[in-house]
Amino acid sequence: MTDAKAEKELVGCSVLIADEDTYISRILASVLAAFDLGSVEEVHSFEEAVSVLRHQDVSCLIVDWMDDGGSGLELVNYVRRDENSINPQIPIILLTARTELSSIYAARDHGVSEIIAKPFSAAEMLKKLLAGLFRGRPFIEMDAYIGPDRRRRNRPWNGPERRGSYGLHQEQIDDVMREPRSQDDQGDAASG
Amino acid sequence: MDKMDQILALADELVERAEKVLQEAKKDYGNTLQEDLDALDAAVASDDREKVVNMAYQIKGRAGTLGWPLVSAAANALAKLLERCPDMALDEESVAVHTDTLALLFRDGMDGEDPRGQPLVRALYKIVEKESGGEEQTA
Q: What is the count of structural domains for chain B?
């Protein structure tokens, strides 16, 4: 594929950013625009996000953890599980400053595809965006879990006792995202 | 080579473009950081614990992305202090040390990995460990 054709792949993609933080959301939109995506749209509430997702063809959703209650995860839950969700298998990238292990587990178990720790870099953003768009994993649909299949590992597992207690670094988060789930994942995997 | 690899072959150019966007944003962030720190102080003064934690996380994300990693780390320390010590009042000295350090880091322009700020931030994490009864760890 030539460079021009490769870029064309991104031109066809539309990304929706759902983040209450309008300041960082605007900057993120500018960063994504530099990747020559087809379209980048920002929303700042759960309700706005649901409205866009119902009426537009979105290639990838980038969602912030949002407030203390984690309403970003409510949005993930809506996309993955609500009967009115029109694209439950859409790649979802969670952007969060709350990187303690419990939050990462919660996000993973809600079915996010990738997690980016704040603060973020342009390189990490591109890497995770491409992984979400072009390297999607088989989709699992079970009572206990709906989301991308976690059953693969990229590197040796260090165990929770080796993880930072002030929040995980990006590489540690990536480990958690690839950690095989327990018996929950032993069921049927839908093609996705 | 799949699509991701093909596009990653272009990554340097794409990332370079995006980093320029971030560099521009960094130039304008100073005023916003001052506003964020003022909002944090106001939340402490009004004894709004949830807002203080949310503001601390907001500053962590914004400051770290926009060239102030020590401010980001200090804000993270404040969030962890309040999460680990749920009974700690916002007017206690340990909280004030965090907000004062954040103000100092900003006032003295300690962006990047300024060596003047690193011991200050390490001291905050020691406070968190002491107050929460945990073992001392490197932040």
A: 1
